[in-house]
Specification:
- This protein is α/β, with parallel strands linked by helices and 197 residues long.
- It has one domain: Rossmann fold.
- It contains 8 helices and 7 strands; from the N terminus they run E-E-E-E-H-H-E-H-H-H-H-E-H-E-H.
- Helix 7 links the parallel strand 6 and strand 7.
- Helix 4 packs across helix 5.
- Its cofactor is Zn(2+).
Length: 197
């Protein structure tokens, strides 16, 4: 595993959750993306609450109803602010295919393909995200075990394979809309996400 270290830390007041998060940048990441960690509260580092969240400009910033990313991020910030913990924010838009390709995939989804089929139709993997970056960041923060907020079993597997013990996975809320039901059903059926629809 690439040796990374903390580059800088700065406290930023957030209107989401009416709280302060300490934004942490890193040097030595094995990726050209500028991934960040955000520490909330005292963040007990022996076994912190952790949320790994992949960037979603449409959902996180513009509150798109096509996915559940924005509501999951808001839920995580509120819970982490209440309990203390770490948000690992990975800059891997559109399951790792980038923003423009994600918009192309949305057009294909409008024609009936699901989120995974659309990516493969564009000659991308179904999901090309790399959660080992999250493990690298947790190692740099001296976190060796955590409680992970996720519905995605791939995140648990990725952390464990990189030497981070996951004591248990805590499911996120279920945020179904008329626009994202097909998307959520595909995550359950094809990737075994733990979403009670």
């Amino acid at each position: 595993m690439t040796h990374i270290k903390i580059r800088n830390q700065v406290a930023i007041p957030l209107s989401s959750g009416n709280c302060v998060g300490t934004f942490i940048s890193f040097s030595g990441l094995s990726s050209n993306h500028e991934h960040i960690a955000i520490r909330f509260g005292s963040a007990e580092l022996d076994n912190p609450l952790v949320r790994i969240h992949s960037e979603c400009l449409t959902g996180d910033v513009f509150t798109s109803q096509r996915c559940d990313c924005g509501p999951q991020l808001n839920e995580a910030i509120a819970r982490l602010n209440e309990e203390g913990g770490l948000l690992i924010y990975l800059r891997q838009e559109g399951r790792g295919i980038g923003l423009y390709a994600k918009l192309d995939a949305y057009r294909l989804q409008d024609g009936g393909l699901d989120t995974f089929e659309a990516n493969t139709h564009l000659n991308f993997p179904e999901d090309s995200r790399d959660f080992s970056h999250a493990a690298q960041m947790l190692h740099a923060l001296n976190v060796r075990r955590c409680r992970l907020m996720t519905n995605n079993p791939d995140k648990v597997i990725a952390l464990k394979s990189c030497g981070i013990e996951v004591d248990y996975a805590i499911p996120t809320g279920v945020f179904v809309t008329e626009h994202n039901r097909h998307y959520l059903q595909a995550k359950v059926a094809k990737k075994n996400h733990l979403i009670d629809l």
